[in-house]
Design a protein that fits this description.
- This protein is of the alpha+beta class and 361 residues long.
- The protein folds into two domains: 237 residues, P-loop containing nucleotide triphosphate hydrolases (Rossmann fold); 108 residues, OB fold (Dihydrolipoamide Acetyltransferase, E2P) (Beta Barrel), CATH 2.40.50.140.
- The strands form six sheets. A six-stranded mixed beta sheet has the order 6-7-8-3-9-10, with helices on both faces. A four-stranded antiparallel beta sheet has the order 2-1-4-5, covered by helices on one side.
- It binds adenosine-5'-diphosphate and magnesium ion.
- Magnesium ion binds next to helix 1.
């Protein structure tokens, strides 16, 4: 198992990159702590696979170094890195049985045949394919083949890290949940460093201790699910995580007060004067629709009943926002206003969160 260090790492697929735009992965410094389970979350095309392939050695970075336990492996081949990687689509040997596919990484390393037999049996059970171990992989569904790929990724106990690149894409929804749970318990049992790439926030938040959020080739925040929810470091994190995502409005900030649509709104903390495009971000959970004329005047566009609560879609001063209301709450038709929980408001300058005065960096 290993700590993985990214040192000034960046990658461009162009031979002679001219500007930052030419980099699929912008400069990055980060330690992946030994034994932690990370999710790498971001929209399609933001650079997740590029980063994963650099860690596994399938791709050499155009800049910077990668270290395993402080040893430089930037130019070490994949095999030397002792990593298991599972891809989005199955990679199996069609002519081999399921059992031989699962045993392959162990036999390849000269493992004891008795150990191979019992370990393969155990993994076969984990992926729900105990009954099919003696079948040839050829003719199995994509779903079953992907389970074999996952099993092959999990079969070795002595790897430095386990890397998963959107491994559940072709798996049916029920089995997805099941396999994700298996991966989590595998992590608890063996304590491997795990990096799990996904574009699905639910998958990321339920799998990982720490979520690494990427946007446009850049890591914009690394945090616990709670940190991502309460203090999004970038407006993108606010939009991308949460359902619906964070509301963002233009605002003027003066100390501990924001002006939104000409109305003074109290903030949970004081701010020093900041430059750039100033905005406030507030999650729908912290927006309340009121009938007593306090707050910012709003127009109710529609109310969506989603079972346990309601999502109220509103407009203030031309900007749309969402509020979450309780199942029994009455949404006023006359003269609705919105108020914000001051503790739930974050301030942004040019899309990056501004720390309030006195907050530890
Ligand atoms: P993700 O896995 O987050 O969807 P990728 O890492 O695959 O993103 O891609 C990041 C960016 O790099 C995208 O703009 C993609 O088009 C580009 N890219 C990926 N692979 C290659 C490649 N082999 N050659 C050139 N450009 C690539
Ligand atoms: Mg990808």
């Amino acid at each position: 198992m290993a700590k993985i260090t990214l040192d000034n790492l960046a990658h461009s697929y162009f031979p002679a990159p001219k500007s930052e735009d030419d980099f699929a992965l912008k400069e990055l410094n980060h330690d992946w702590v030994d034994g932690e389970a990370y999710a790498l979350l971001g929209a399609s095309g933001c650079g997740k696979s590029t980063l994963l392939n650099i860690i596994s050695g399938l791709l050499h970075p155009s800049q910077g170094r990668i270290l395993f336990n402080d040893q430089d492996v930037t130019y070490a081949p994949t095999a030397e890195r002792n990593i298991a990687q599972v891809f989005q689509f199955p990679v199996v040997y069609d002519t081999m049985t399921v059992r031989d596919n699962l045993a392959f990484p162990l036999r390849n390393r000269g493992a004891d045949p008795n150990y191979v037999a019992s370990r393969v049996q155990q993994i076969g059970k984990m992926i729900g394919m105990e009954a099919e171990l003696d079948r040839k992989a050829r003719g199995l569904t994509a779903d079953a083949k992907q389970k074999i790929s996952l099993g092959r990724g999990m079969v070795r106990e002595d790897v430095n890290a386990l890397l998963f690149d959107e491994p559940l894409t072709v798996i049916d929804p029920h089995m997805k949940w099941e396999l994700r749970t298996q991966l989590k318990s595998l992590h608890h049992e063996f304590g491997h460093t795990m990096i799990y790439v996904t574009h699905d926030q639910t998958e990321a938040l339920t799998f990982a201790d720490k979520v690494v959020v990427m946007y446009d080739g850049r890591v914009v925040q690394i945090g616990t699910p709670q940190e991502l929810f309460e203090r999004p470091a970038h407006t993108f994190v606010g939009y991308f995580i949460g359902s619906p995502g964070m509301n963002v409005f233009d605002a003027k900030i003066d100390g501990a007060t924001a002006q939104i649509a000409g109305v003074e709104v109290p903030l949970g903390a004081g701010y020093k004067p900041a430059c750039g495009k100033l905005q406030v971000g507030v999650r729908p959970e912290y927006v309340k629709v009121t009938a007593d004329g306090t707050g910012v005047p709003a127009r109710v566009l529609r109310v969506e009943d989603v079972g346990r609560h309601k999502i109220v879609r509103l407009e203030i001063d031309g900007a749309q926002l969402s509020a979450i209301a309780g199942e029994g709450d009455v949404i006023p038709e006359m003269n609705p206003h919105v108020t914000f929980d001051p503790e739930g408001i974050n301030v942004y300058a040019d899309d990056w969160r501004v720390a309030p005065a006195g907050e530890a960096a």
